Give the backbone structure.
Amino acid sequence: MSKMKKLKKAKFALPSLITLGSVFCSFMAIATVMDAMRLQGDAHLDKIFIAALLILASIVCDLFDGKVARKTGTSSKFGMELDSLADGVSFGLAPAFVMYGFILHEAGIFGIIACFLYVSGTLVRLARFNIEAPDEGVQTYFKGIPAPGGAATIAAIVMAAIHTGFEFNTQFEINTLGAITILIGFLMVSTVKYKTLKGKKTIHDWIYIGIGVSFFAAMCFVLHPTQAFFLLVCYFIGFGMLNTVYLNLKHSPRRHSRKRRKTIEMQAIKADDSAAESEESTKDIKASADDAESTDDKTDNSSEDTDDKAKSEDSDLN
């Protein structure tokens, strides 16, 4: 086999290898959580922290596989299907394992339900994205938190809580974290709009990015990077919610009905004007017809007078 054919095959395999790298990181995160369940105290938390970092590594791999496929021109249906299946493991199952191993295993059946609902939300989110994604063009907004965003939120919560030494001493605090996990799963299948930041960016996109980067950089100077990352995730989720409220108010049904009513009124006015114009034209046509009839009558009368004169002249001659 020639070297060019080998390079061509390697080029087609590269995006899939990066996707499998994402799966490997998520699998290592699950294995690390299982090791952590046999430990106690700081050793347990250190293992969970490593598992959360592996979730972030999985997100990085997912960001690059699509870019590499587009740059090398090796996008294929096989790669898309593999990526979707990998996302279900990397951003659904693995983060749920991390959250359950962190503290939700102490919530009993509620902890299991919370993690299951998060996984279900991720899978539904991915399935909906595969159906609604346009064949051509670029989406301006994601409907619901993207699956990597949900996984990043879980990892950020776990890492920030471990680094700050926050202890979930009461059942209420543990159940609250379970409710937050359910909320993240719900936001992934919601209609909350989050900017994709793909394609040509507008001035509003650059402002959004600039605020996020500046905020994260400033928080890194004041706080630990894990806490700054948690605040950045909160900014991302909060901005999407506020932006959705703004868009809904901007395009509210009342506004649409008012606009529709105004359009109907304008159409009615145009119809009245056209009817008036047609009526005037009809009157003009009738008037011109009457004038033509009167002209014909005069012509007939004049011809009759001429005939009478001719008859009288004939009688005189006779």
Observations:
- The radius of gyration is 38 Å.
- The CA atoms of residues 30 and 97 lie 6 Å apart.
- The first strand starts at residue 141 and ends at 143.
